[in-house]
Protein backbone atom coordinates (compact mmCIF):
# COMPACT_ATOMS: atom_id res chain seq x y z
CA UNK A 1 0.00 0.00 0.00
CA UNK A 2 2.87 2.34 0.82
CA UNK A 3 4.43 1.86 -2.60
CA UNK A 4 1.16 2.30 -4.47
CA UNK A 5 0.42 5.50 -2.57
CA UNK A 6 3.90 6.86 -3.19
CA UNK A 7 3.45 6.21 -6.89
CA UNK A 8 0.21 8.18 -6.98
CA UNK A 9 1.77 11.09 -5.14
CA UNK A 10 4.81 11.15 -7.40
CA UNK A 11 2.46 11.91 -10.29
CA UNK A 12 0.72 14.78 -8.47
CA UNK A 13 1.16 18.50 -9.32
CA UNK A 14 3.14 19.02 -6.12
CA UNK A 15 5.67 16.53 -7.40
CA UNK A 16 6.26 18.47 -10.60
CA UNK A 17 8.71 20.79 -8.88
CA UNK A 18 10.75 17.75 -7.90
CA UNK A 19 11.34 16.81 -11.53
CA UNK A 20 12.68 19.19 -14.21
CA UNK A 21 16.45 19.07 -14.73
CA UNK A 22 17.25 18.45 -11.07
CA UNK A 23 18.87 15.27 -9.87
CA UNK A 24 19.17 13.65 -6.47
CA UNK A 25 21.71 15.41 -4.26
CA UNK A 26 25.27 14.18 -4.03
CA UNK A 27 26.23 13.99 -0.36
CA UNK A 28 29.87 14.39 -1.38
CA UNK A 29 32.02 14.94 1.68
CA UNK A 30 29.07 15.53 4.04
CA UNK A 31 29.86 14.07 7.46
CA UNK A 32 27.45 11.32 8.48
CA UNK A 33 28.76 11.32 12.05
CA UNK A 34 27.16 14.14 14.01
CA UNK A 35 29.44 15.87 16.53
CA UNK A 36 28.04 17.92 19.43
CA UNK A 37 29.25 21.52 19.43
CA UNK A 38 30.55 22.85 22.77
CA UNK A 39 29.48 19.71 24.66
CA UNK A 40 28.90 19.58 28.40
CA UNK A 41 29.20 16.40 30.50
CA UNK A 42 26.38 13.88 30.52
CA UNK A 43 25.16 12.63 33.90
CA UNK A 44 26.31 9.11 34.90
CA UNK A 45 24.31 6.41 33.15
CA UNK A 46 22.57 8.94 30.94
CA UNK A 47 24.50 8.47 27.71
CA UNK A 48 22.18 7.57 24.84
CA UNK A 49 22.29 3.88 23.88
CA UNK A 50 22.29 2.35 20.42
CA UNK A 51 18.77 1.24 19.51
CA UNK A 52 19.77 -2.20 18.21
CA UNK A 53 21.60 -2.86 21.48
CA UNK A 54 18.53 -1.87 23.50
CA UNK A 55 16.24 -4.22 21.58
CA UNK A 56 18.69 -7.13 21.51
CA UNK A 57 20.18 -6.96 25.01
CA UNK A 58 17.94 -4.95 27.35
CA UNK A 59 14.48 -6.43 26.94
CA UNK A 60 12.88 -3.45 25.20
CA UNK A 61 10.66 -3.77 22.17
CA UNK A 62 10.19 -1.27 19.39
CA UNK A 63 7.17 0.74 20.51
CA UNK A 64 7.97 0.48 24.22
CA UNK A 65 8.83 4.19 24.41
CA UNK A 66 8.45 6.90 21.73
CA UNK A 67 9.01 4.96 18.52
CA UNK A 68 5.37 4.80 17.59
CA UNK A 69 4.00 1.58 16.15
CA UNK A 70 3.83 -0.12 12.79
CA UNK A 71 5.96 -2.20 10.51
CA UNK A 72 7.57 0.75 8.72
CA UNK A 73 8.59 2.60 11.88
CA UNK A 74 10.16 -0.45 13.46
CA UNK A 75 11.48 -2.57 10.59
CA UNK A 76 12.64 0.24 8.30
CA UNK A 77 13.96 2.50 11.03
CA UNK A 78 14.45 1.87 14.73
CA UNK A 79 15.19 -1.87 14.72
CA UNK A 80 17.98 -1.43 12.16
CA UNK A 81 19.59 1.60 13.83
CA UNK A 82 23.14 0.96 15.06
CA UNK A 83 23.40 4.49 16.41
CA UNK A 84 22.27 6.52 19.40
CA UNK A 85 20.90 9.69 17.82
CA UNK A 86 17.93 11.42 19.45
CA UNK A 87 14.68 11.52 17.44
CA UNK A 88 11.39 13.41 17.61
CA UNK A 89 8.94 12.60 20.39
CA UNK A 90 5.60 12.08 18.56
CA UNK A 91 2.96 14.65 19.46
CA UNK A 92 5.24 16.47 21.90
CA UNK A 93 4.13 20.07 22.48
CA UNK A 94 7.73 21.11 23.11
CA UNK A 95 8.91 19.32 19.94
CA UNK A 96 11.58 17.53 21.93
CA UNK A 97 13.72 14.54 21.02
CA UNK A 98 14.44 11.34 22.92
CA UNK A 99 16.73 8.33 23.26
CA UNK A 100 17.14 5.19 25.39
CA UNK A 101 19.47 5.29 28.41
CA UNK A 102 20.47 2.99 31.26
CA UNK A 103 17.89 2.35 33.96
CA UNK A 104 20.42 3.94 36.34
CA UNK A 105 20.04 7.38 34.73
CA UNK A 106 18.64 9.91 37.21
CA UNK A 107 18.31 12.80 34.74
CA UNK A 108 15.48 11.67 32.50
CA UNK A 109 14.14 15.22 31.97
CA UNK A 110 10.56 14.03 31.85
CA UNK A 111 11.33 10.55 30.54
CA UNK A 112 10.59 7.31 32.39
CA UNK A 113 11.89 3.79 33.09
CA UNK A 114 10.46 0.98 30.98
CA UNK A 115 8.54 -1.88 32.50
CA UNK A 116 10.04 -5.33 31.93
CA UNK A 117 13.23 -3.82 30.46
CA UNK A 118 16.55 -2.71 31.89
CA UNK A 119 16.45 0.73 30.25
CA UNK A 120 14.67 4.07 30.47
CA UNK A 121 14.02 6.81 27.96
CA UNK A 122 15.02 10.44 28.44
CA UNK A 123 14.34 13.79 26.83
CA UNK A 124 17.56 14.81 25.08
CA UNK A 125 19.53 18.04 25.53
CA UNK A 126 21.33 19.73 22.59
CA UNK A 127 24.72 20.17 24.29
CA UNK A 128 24.73 16.72 25.88
CA UNK A 129 23.20 14.46 23.26
CA UNK A 130 23.41 13.94 19.50
CA UNK A 131 20.20 15.52 18.25
CA UNK A 132 19.24 14.31 14.78
CA UNK A 133 17.69 17.70 14.02
CA UNK A 134 21.19 19.23 14.15
CA UNK A 135 21.96 17.40 10.90
CA UNK A 136 21.80 19.34 7.64
CA UNK A 137 19.85 17.70 4.84
CA UNK A 138 23.12 16.63 3.23
CA UNK A 139 24.65 15.20 6.39
CA UNK A 140 21.41 13.41 7.36
CA UNK A 141 21.31 11.95 3.85
CA UNK A 142 24.90 10.78 4.30
CA UNK A 143 23.91 9.25 7.66
CA UNK A 144 20.91 7.44 6.13
CA UNK A 145 23.11 6.12 3.33
CA UNK A 146 25.74 4.89 5.79
CA UNK A 147 23.15 3.06 7.90
CA UNK A 148 20.86 2.06 4.98
CA UNK A 149 17.81 3.79 6.43
CA UNK A 150 14.68 5.15 4.76
CA UNK A 151 15.51 8.78 4.04
CA UNK A 152 11.93 10.03 4.06
CA UNK A 153 11.41 8.58 7.50
CA UNK A 154 14.69 10.03 8.76
CA UNK A 155 13.63 13.53 7.70
CA UNK A 156 10.23 13.23 9.37
CA UNK A 157 11.76 11.80 12.57
CA UNK A 158 14.51 14.43 12.76
CA UNK A 159 13.05 17.79 11.75
CA UNK A 160 10.22 19.84 13.19
CA UNK A 161 7.09 19.88 11.04
CA UNK A 162 5.47 23.05 9.75
CA UNK A 163 2.01 23.18 11.29
CA UNK A 164 -1.14 24.14 9.43
CA UNK A 165 0.33 24.00 5.90
CA UNK A 166 0.88 21.08 3.54
CA UNK A 167 3.37 20.81 0.70
CA UNK A 168 0.49 20.40 -1.76
CA UNK A 169 -0.66 23.89 -0.73
CA UNK A 170 2.78 25.50 -0.93
CA UNK A 171 4.33 23.79 -3.96
CA UNK A 172 2.61 26.03 -6.57
CA UNK A 173 4.39 29.06 -5.09
CA UNK A 174 7.83 27.52 -5.69
CA UNK A 175 7.88 26.82 -9.45
CA UNK A 176 10.92 25.81 -11.47
CA UNK A 177 13.14 28.57 -12.81
CA UNK A 178 12.42 31.26 -10.22
CA UNK A 179 14.52 32.66 -7.39
CA UNK A 180 13.76 31.71 -3.81
CA UNK A 181 13.41 35.37 -2.81
CA UNK A 182 10.74 35.89 -5.48
CA UNK A 183 8.91 32.75 -4.40
CA UNK A 184 8.75 34.01 -0.83
CA UNK A 185 7.13 37.25 -1.99
CA UNK A 186 4.42 35.26 -3.75
CA UNK A 187 3.49 33.12 -0.74
CA UNK A 188 0.09 34.17 0.70
CA UNK A 189 0.24 36.42 3.74
CA UNK A 190 -1.26 33.86 6.12
CA UNK A 191 1.77 31.59 5.54
CA UNK A 192 4.49 34.06 4.58
CA UNK A 193 5.75 35.01 8.05
CA UNK A 194 6.13 31.36 9.06
CA UNK A 195 8.07 30.46 5.92
CA UNK A 196 10.28 33.55 6.01
CA UNK A 197 11.04 32.99 9.69
CA UNK A 198 12.24 29.45 9.00
CA UNK A 199 14.32 30.50 5.98
CA UNK A 200 16.08 33.28 7.86
CA UNK A 201 16.29 31.85 11.38
CA UNK A 202 15.64 28.10 11.20
CA UNK A 203 15.36 25.47 12.47
CA UNK A 204 15.41 22.96 9.63
CA UNK A 205 11.76 22.19 8.96
CA UNK A 206 9.85 19.57 7.00
CA UNK A 207 6.69 20.57 5.15
CA UNK A 208 4.58 17.43 5.24
CA UNK A 209 2.21 16.26 2.56
CA UNK A 210 -1.42 15.71 3.46
CA UNK A 211 -0.74 11.96 3.59
CA UNK A 212 2.66 12.02 5.29
CA UNK A 213 4.27 10.49 2.18
CA UNK A 214 6.58 11.83 -0.52
CA UNK A 215 6.69 14.31 -2.12
CA UNK A 216 7.50 16.49 0.89
CA UNK A 217 9.76 19.51 1.28
CA UNK A 218 12.51 20.47 3.71
CA UNK A 219 13.75 24.00 4.36
CA UNK A 220 17.42 23.92 5.39
CA UNK A 221 18.47 27.52 5.97
CA UNK A 222 18.09 29.19 2.55
CA UNK A 223 17.80 25.92 0.64
CA UNK A 224 14.65 24.04 -0.35
CA UNK A 225 14.75 20.28 -0.88
CA UNK A 226 11.98 18.00 -2.11
CA UNK A 227 11.66 14.24 -1.64
CA UNK A 228 10.29 11.70 -4.10
CA UNK A 229 9.85 7.97 -4.31
CA UNK A 230 12.74 6.28 -6.13
CA UNK A 231 10.55 4.30 -8.51
CA UNK A 232 13.55 2.68 -10.19
CA UNK A 233 14.04 0.81 -6.91
CA UNK A 234 10.48 0.34 -5.64
CA UNK A 235 8.57 -0.49 -8.83
CA UNK A 236 7.49 -4.11 -8.96
CA UNK A 237 9.06 -5.06 -5.63
CA UNK A 238 7.33 -6.67 -2.69
CA UNK A 239 7.46 -5.11 0.76
CA UNK A 240 10.21 -7.39 2.04
CA UNK A 241 12.29 -6.80 -1.11
CA UNK A 242 12.10 -3.03 -0.72
CA UNK A 243 12.93 -3.35 2.98
CA UNK A 244 16.20 -5.09 2.13
CA UNK A 245 17.70 -1.66 1.37
CA UNK A 246 15.46 1.13 2.73
CA UNK A 247 17.84 3.93 1.71
CA UNK A 248 16.96 3.22 -1.92
CA UNK A 249 13.29 4.04 -1.35
CA UNK A 250 13.48 7.85 -1.34
CA UNK A 251 15.40 10.49 -3.28
CA UNK A 252 15.94 14.08 -2.18
CA UNK A 253 16.64 16.94 -4.57
CA UNK A 254 17.86 20.49 -4.01
CA UNK A 255 15.35 22.56 -5.98
CA UNK A 256 15.98 26.07 -4.65
CA UNK A 257 18.99 27.75 -3.11
CA UNK A 258 19.61 31.23 -1.79
CA UNK A 259 17.18 33.78 -0.40
TrEMBL record:
Residues 1-16 form the signal peptide. Keywords: Signal. This is Uncharacterized protein.
Amino acid sequence: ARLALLGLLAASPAAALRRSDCSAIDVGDADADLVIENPIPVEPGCQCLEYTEVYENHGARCGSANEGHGWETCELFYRRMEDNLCWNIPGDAEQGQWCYVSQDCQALNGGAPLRKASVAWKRCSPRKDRMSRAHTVKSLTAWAKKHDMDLGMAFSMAYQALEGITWEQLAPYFPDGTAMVDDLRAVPDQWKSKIEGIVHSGPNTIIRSSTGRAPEAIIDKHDLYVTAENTEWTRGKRKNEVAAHPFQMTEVTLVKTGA
